[in-house]
Design goal:
By secondary structure, the chain is α/β, with parallel strands linked by helices. The chain has 8 helices and 7 strands; from the N terminus they run βαβαβαβαβααβααβ. The chain is globular. The structure holds NADP nicotinamide-adenine-dinucleotide phosphate.
Amino acid sequence: MHALILGSSGDIGTGIAKQLAEKGWSLYLHYNNNQERISELITELHEKYPKQEFIPVKFDMVNDNVLVLTRQIFTLDAIIFAQGNTYYKLLVDIEEEEIDSLWKIHIKLPILILKELQDKLAESKSGRVVFIGSIYGKVGSAMEVVYSTVKGAMSSFADAYAKEVASLGISVNVVAPGAVDTKMNQEFSSEDLESIREEIPANRLAKPDEIADLVGYLVDMKSNYLTGQTIYFAGGWLL
Ligand SMILES: NC(=O)c1ccc[n+]([C@@H]2O[C@H](COP(=O)([O-])OP(=O)(O)OC[C@H]3O[C@@H](n4cnc5c(N)ncnc54)[C@H](OP(=O)(O)O)[C@@H]3O)[C@@H](O)[C@H]2O)c1
């Protein structure tokens, strides 16, 4: 079994990679700038699971052609889209290239990647696609209006695409976290993070490993009957 994890060099992507490797998957580990993190991850995974394959894949989702990525992928059973970025600013202050980057990274390139790789995913008759969305795709957030927009579009895309590929055995779902303890939230002060924690009924941020557990379940499922869903994983926050 082979999975492609977009954003393996991120905190959530690394958690997913470790979880899937433990379950016996071979992995295409995507990164953009953080080659060092992927090299360390591959060394760790090779030592623990010497019979599996761990293949680094560099790809810039803003500037590269989709074929740069898809030409490096041979056999494939699952794709997990765990890459992402955000800009924390008012809509009136966001630059056009920042809007383009959010659109390309979260929506346009995932769609182009699926167009190219769908035939490979369909071969096993149990292909799996999982997106890491966001609770903001449902409730929306001030200061992250365009980010909320693309995360909402991710759920709409999964809803529609799931219907198109169910007969091929492919399931398509979104895991939509609330606040997760990762470097994406590093720009917030500890006081800001503390006030977010106080708003969350579960009284803490999620851990990347918890997101990885749910993704592990979705890609391992024997049937494709759970499909087209957005699963909110937010400790009761904003729901
Ligand atoms: N953290 C949270 O609280 C939270 C909450 C809800 C949803 N999410 C979502 O979860 C996903 C992962 O977030 P995270 O917290 O793990 O973020 P992270 O640690 O900042 O990782 C971001 C990942 O995206 C990749 N990336 C960024 N720009 C890219 C580009 N131009 N081309 C290709 N890849 C690019 C990064 O690659 P390099 O580092 O190699 O450049 C990295 O692998 C995102 O979709 C995010 O929106 C996060």
